[in-house]
């Protein structure tokens, strides 16, 4: 399966990430809190939340997990950008 981006889509990903990475820690946490607000049952998918009596927003393991996910997104963005540059060369 192949996934290719147009120049406009690639530029949008790069621009969006550039804005988001300035406040990545807070946005990452807000992202997960929004997921749990919309789908509270999603908390069951995370052992560190499932086995905790703390409110989700107070759980000390959530923010590091959220940042790890955002780091992966950053790496994927770099791969997309690199792949796109290889294609147009």
Question: Distance between the terminal alpha carbons, to the nearest Å?
Answer: 22 Å
Q: What do the pLDDT scores average to?
A: 83
How can the largest sheet be summarized?
none
Strand segment count: 0
Specify the structural class.
Answer: mainly alpha
Topology:
Blueprint: H1 7-20, H2 24-38, H3 47-50, H4 62-88
Helix pairs in contact: 1-4, 2-4
Protein name: Globin domain-containing protein
Family: Belongs to the plant globin family.
Catalytic activity: Fe(III)-heme b-[protein] + nitric oxide + H2O = Fe(II)-heme b-[protein] + nitrite + 2 H(+)
Main attributes of the structure:
elongated; 4 helices; 89 residues
Structure explained in plain terms:
This protein is mainly alpha-helical. Helix content is about 65%, strand content about 0%. Helix 1 runs antiparallel to helix 4 and helix 2 packs across helix 4. The longest helix has 27 residues. The chain is elongated, with a radius of gyration of 16 Å. GO terms for molecular function: heme binding; metal ion binding; oxidoreductase activity; oxygen binding. It catalyses: Fe(III)-heme b-[protein] + nitric oxide + H2O = Fe(II)-heme b-[protein] + nitrite + 2 H(+).
């Amino acid at each position: 399966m192949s996934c290719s981006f147009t120049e406009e889509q690639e530029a949008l990903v790069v621009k969006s990430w550039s804005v988001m990475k300035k406040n990545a820690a807070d946005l990452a946490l807000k992202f997960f809190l929004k997921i749990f607000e919309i789908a509270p049952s999603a908390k069951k998918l995370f052992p560190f939340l499932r086995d905790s009596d703390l409110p989700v927003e107070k759980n000390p393991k959530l923010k590091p997990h959220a940042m790890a996910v955002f780091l992966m997104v950053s790496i994927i963005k770099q791969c997309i950008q690199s792949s796109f540059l290889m294609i147009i060369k």
